[in-house]
Amino acid sequence: MPVSSAFGPGLRWWRMHRGQSQLVLAGVADISQRHLSFLESGRTAPSRDMVLRLAATLDVPLRQQNALLLAAGFAPVWRESELSAPALAEVMRALDHMLAQQEPYPAFVVDRRWNLLRANAAAGRMTTFLLGPPAEPAGAVNLADALMSPNVLRPLIVNWEEVALYFLRGVQADALADGTAETAELARRLAAYPDAATLAHKVPAEPHGPVLAIHFRKDDTSLKLFTTIATLGTAHDVTLQEIRIENFFPADAATARLFRDWTSAETLPAT
Question: Which one, of 19, 112, 7, 6, lies nearest residue 59 by Cα?
Answer without folding.
Answer: 19
